[in-house]
Design a protein that fits this description.
The structure holds two protein chains of two kinds.
Chain A lengths: L18 E5 L2 E9 L7 E2 L3 E8 L2 E2 L5 E5 L2 E4 L10 E2 L5 E6 L8 E16 L9 E5 L2 E6 L2
Antiparallel strand pairs in A: 1-2, 2-9, 3-8, 4-5, 4-10, 6-7, 6-9, 10-11, 10-12
Chain B lengths: L2 E7 L4 H5 L5 H10 L4 E5 H4 L8 H14 L2 E6 L14 H18 L3 E4 L5 H14 L2 E6 L8 H13 L4 E5 L10 H10 L3 H12 L4 H10 L4 H10 L11 H7 L6 E5 L2 E2 L2 E2 L4 H9 L4 E8 L14 H23 L1
Parallel strand pairs in B: 1-2, 1-10, 2-3, 3-4, 4-5, 5-6, 7-10
Antiparallel strand pairs in B: 8-9
């Protein structure tokens, strides 16, 4: 991969945030919280790649929800959210639909999160719409709370 | 003689804010403790209701002013031309976003908006009537590797002069007058294991103004390691330095300068390690400038990397102390 920005001043995957979530009394899936690896916030439309693996198993895109500001977005709809802002101080919640949820104990969570830095074109690029990527990916062994 | 006021950009507390050590209120309070009465806020960083200003946020800002005696004087805007997923914003959309920034600044009582170079000279001229309507001055940031005399900035100068507007101009970042590689770049590379001889060769190439591609090739031919190469790209980019600070260029644009970012990376023995503040402040002092220089600490990771032993608050304290000392000396000379 070429030039990337990564301002990694803090944890991206948030400790003590992995838990099963319920819907009408049943475990619908699991969720965890994420903070951006940057110094400023971004519009959700700048998210170019969002993938999750749990214990090295990739999660199908259709089972992922990105939750912020009281809203739940499917992955393919994030690109249309050019007025929905993710501040640097607000954790987003990633929900993964998995009826029954996760077992107790530690799980390896792998997040691939790449954004477009919308005010920093790649140096020397003459292409339109060609910006430096921000890498906000992370991998942690997380304890189910 | 200039009327220089000193302020702090809350961006200086990026590390503390991002790690949750400081709340927004802490950032404002800490800035006030440094003895200044004005702060700059980067909207995309610290305004929870961005891209709008909520009444709740406005109430907070007023409350902080009442409690700490410090208020926002400048609004740092980001020109997010690439925010849509499939194309760049067109001129109308860029202008609309900037009008919203002007209105936001107006709500907060900021007299200056820092815009970025993706707002073209033509679009800067287009927003002039709005800047005048709200009496908010919009300045294009001059940031490394640009300096006041580089062609891109000269195109703004031409457009600004032709427009006749008093409300569009520049916000120079003093980092653009750096004359040495900065500590993050140089010492940071050494700490990561860069070969010193090769790193010094990279500095030498930059000093000799060898063009980027040619210099890159020469370093690769000599087998420079990745840490040297990474530092080398920074030396030709956002962390560049010049043999001479472009102070003639600065003097030329001063009638259109509203505000300065007092960029600094590291303080040692009361001096900034790469930017010649005494010369730069003297140049500003001898103009009719009236406005703020806000201390902008950009050493967010230096302490965690073991390159400095002070936090942002102490760094800014030393920076303000240096500026006050230099300005007092200049004032003495005047008498």
């Amino acid at each position: 991969m070429g030039l990337q920005m990564r301002i990694h001043l803090r944890d991206i995957l948030q400790k003590n945030s992995l838990r099963n979530y319920y819907l009408r009394g049943r475990v619908e899936g699991f969720q965890f919280d994420v903070l951006l690896a940057n110094y400023r916030g971004h519009f959700l439309s700048t998210i170019e790649q969002l993938e999750v693996s749990i214990n090295d198993q990739p999660v199908p895109k259709k089972d992922i929800l990105f939750c912020l500001n009281g809203k739940e977005f499917i992955v393919d709809d994030l690109k249309n959210q050019s007025n929905e802002f993710w501040t640097i101080a607000t954790p987003a919640t990633i929900k993964v639909r998995k009826p029954g949820g996760l077992e107790k104990g530690s799980h390896k969570v792998t997040l691939t999160l790449i954004l477009r830095n919308p005010y920093l074109p790649k140096p020397g690029s003459t292409q339109p719409h060609d910006y430096i990527p921000i890498n906000s990916s992370d991998e942690q062994h997380m304890e189910l709370c | 003689m200039a009327d220089i006021k000193l302020g702090v950009t809350l961006y200086s507390f990026t590390y503390e804010y991002v790690t949750g050590k400081y709340s927004l209120e802490d950032c404002v309070r800490k800035a006030a403790e440094l003895g200044v009465d004005g702060y700059e806020i980067v909207a995309t960083q610290m305004i929870p209701s961005y891209p709008y200003i909520s009444d709740e946020f406005l109430a907070k800002v007023s409350e902080f002013e009442y409690k700490y005696g410090i208020r926002p004087v400048a609004y740092g805007a980001n020109t997010d031309r690439g925010k849509l997923h499939d194309r760049d914003l067109n001129d109308e959309e860029l202008v609309n976003d900037t009008i919203r920034d002007i209105q936001n600044a107006h709500k907060l009582g900021c007299k200056v908006v820092r815009a970025q170079y993706l707002l073209s000279p033509e679009n800067l001229v287009r927003i002039a009537p709005y800047a005048e309507e709200y009496d908010v001055k919009v300045g294009i940031e001059i940031h490394n590797p640009e300096t006041p005399s580089t062609p891109a900035m000269q195109r703004y100068l031409e457009a600004i002069e032709k427009s006749g507007s008093t409300h569009i101009g520049f916000v120079p970042d003093l980092g653009c007058f750096a004359t040495k590689p900065n500590i993050k770049n140089y010492d940071g590379a050494l700490k990561k294991g860069a070969n010193k001889e090769m790193l010094d060769y990279a500095v030498e190439l930059k000093r000799a103004d060898v063009p980027l591609r040619e210099a890159e090739q020469r370093l690769k031919d000599k087998g420079a390691d990745p840490h040297v190469m990474s530092a080398f790209y920074d030396m030709y980019g956002y962390l560049t330095f010049y043999n001479e600070p472009d102070l003639d260029g600065l003097r030329r644009i001063m009638p259109y300068v509203f505000h300065f970012h007092g960029k600094f990376h590291a303080m040692r023995n009361g001096e900034e390690t790469s930017i010649p503040y005494p010369e730069v402040l003297e140049a500003i002092f001898n103009t009719d400038f009236s406005g703020y220089i806000v201390s902008e600490y950009e050493g967010h990771s230096l302490r965690a990397d073991g390159l400095v032993d002070y936090d942002a608050f102490e760094a800014v304290r030393q920076h303000l102390e240096m500026e006050r000392r230099i300005l007092a000396e200049l004032g003495q000379k005047q008498k």
